[in-house]
Amino acid sequence: MPVPDESLVRFRRVVAAALAELENRRQEVNDLNVFPVADGDTGDNMALTLRAVVDELNGLNGQPLDGSGRDEIVSAVARAALLGARGNSGVILSQIVRGAAEELASRPGELVDPILVSAALARAADAAYASVRDPAEGTMLSAVRAMAARVAHDLAHMDTRRLGLDATAEEQDELLADVLENALEAGKEAVERGPEQLAILRESGVVDAGAYGLTVILAGCLAGLRGSAAPQLEHQYAPAALHRPEHESSSFRYCTNFAVTGESLEAGRFTALLEDIGDSVLVVGDDRTLRVHVHTDEPDRAVALFDTVGEVSRFDVADMHEQVADRSARLSGESAITDGSTCAVVAVASGPGVKRLYEELGVLVVDGGATMNPSTYELLAGIHAAPGAQVLVLPNSPNVILAAERAAELSEKPARVVPTTAPQEGLAALLAFDPTKGSDANASAVHAAAEALRVGGVAPAGRDDARGRFTAGDAVG
Fold this sequence. Notes:
The longest helix has 29 residues, at 169-197. The relative contact order is 0.09. The strands form 3 sheets. A 4-stranded antiparallel beta sheet has the order 2-3-1-4, sandwiched between helices. Strands 6-5-7-8 form a 4-stranded parallel beta sheet, with helices on both faces. Strands 9-10 form a two-stranded antiparallel sheet. The protein has 477 residues and is α/β, with parallel strands linked by helices. Helix 5 packs antiparallel against helix 6, helix 7 packs antiparallel against helix 9 and helix 14 (376-385) crosses helix 15 (401-410). It has helices at residues 7-30, 42-58, 69-84, 87-105, 114-130, 140-156, 169-197, 199-204, 209-226, 268-275, 299-304, 320-332, 352-360, 376-385, 401-410, 423-429, 439-451, and strands at residues 254-262, 278-285, 289-296, 310-319, 343-349, 364-367, 390-394, 415-417, 459-460, 475-476. The protein folds into 3 domains: 7-226, Serine Threonine Protein Phosphatase 5, Tetratricopeptide repeat (Alpha Horseshoe); 254-320, Alpha-Beta Plaits (2-Layer Sandwich), CATH 3.30.70; 336-451, Rossmann fold. The chain is elongated. Strand 2 and strand 3 (289-296) form a beta hairpin. It contains 17 helices and 10 strands.
C-alpha cells in the first residue's frame, strides 16, 4: 500500500522555512535593488507575498494536498499570493507561485516528486515571463528559468526507480532536497550572470535583487526539507550605491499596487490605459481577480480606471524617492531616523526650514500644507515608508485631516492620526512623543500636548480687506 502523500504538511513547512530565511535576509536583498527602477524594497515586497502564502496555508487546518481537494487548496494559495503581492518583484513572485500551483492542480492525486516539481518549475517560469510586457534577462525571470532548466536536465538523467510511491516521507524529503539543491546552484549561477546581461547591474557593482531573493527563498526551502540551517550563499554582494531617486528610465514617483475583484475582468484592456499615466505596468490574475502594479505620479487616476469594472481594494502606495533616499542614508550611516523604533512619525509640512526641523527629529515628511494638500495615496506611501512598526500621523492642516484618517484606515501598519492643524503645533506636540511606545500611547500623549497649545500664524493677505484694515500682500494673522 503506498504511503499517503503528505504534500500539504511538507509544503507548509517548506514555505514557512523559506519565509523565515527571506525575513532574515530581507534587508540584504533590499540593499541590492537598482533594477529596473527604485521599485520599493525588493526584499520587503517578496516577503509580503510569501507571508500571504504562509498565512493561507496556516488557515487550511492540515488538509491533505491530494485527491479532489488539491485544486481548491492550490487555487487558494495562488490567490493569496496574488492579493498579497506588492511591487514588481512581489507580483512576479506571485506569478511564479501561480504557475507552480496550476501545475499541481492539473495533476490531482499525483505524488509531489521530482517529475511534478520539474513541471511546476517550468510552468512557473512561463507564468513569470508572461506577466512582464518587456522581459529583461539578468533578473529574477532568468533565475527561475535557469532553475527550471536545471531540474529538467537532472530529471532526464535520474534513476527513475527512485520515484516510487512507496517512498517514505523522509526519503521523499531528501529526494526533493537533492533536486532543489541543484536548482539552487543554477539560480546562483544565473544571479552571477546578471551583471553580464544588464548594464545597470554592472555599473552599480551589484546583482539583481529579485534574482538573489529567489535563491534566498530556495535556500530556505532546502532548510525546511532537511530540517537544518539554510545552505550558505557563497557570495556576499555589496549593497547598491544609490545617490539619486531616478533609476534606469522611470521618472515616476509612486509604486502603486491594488487588487480588483469583479466579473469577466480582462487584464489586457487596462495595460495601455495605465501606460498613459505611468510605467512598469503589470496587470495579472484571472477573470475574477486582478493584481495591478504601476509606477505613476497619479495613483488616484490609476485606481479610477477600475472604478466601474469591480471593487478596488488592498491599496498600497510607496514613495520610491523616499525609499531610495532612506536606503542611501542608511548605507552611508547618515540616517536621522532611529532604526528599530516601535513607533515612527509622518508629518505634513512644506518649506525647507520647517521640513528640516521635522527631519532633524527623525520624522518622515510628506510635502504639503494648507494650500497644497497631499492625497490619501501620498500619505499612505509615507506611512509605509516610515521605519517603525507603528506610525503616528500629523496632518498639520484642517484640510488634510480627513485624508490622513483615510490613509490610516487603508494602511497595513497600525497608524493613528493626531489632528494637528499647523506645522508649528505638530512640532511642539512632538515633545511628548516616545519612539519606544506604540501608536496608541503616543497618540494620546501627543494629542494631549497639542490640546494644551495655542497656535497662531502670519501670512500675506490674498486680497484687500473690505473694511480697509489691510491690502493684498500685507502680513496678517
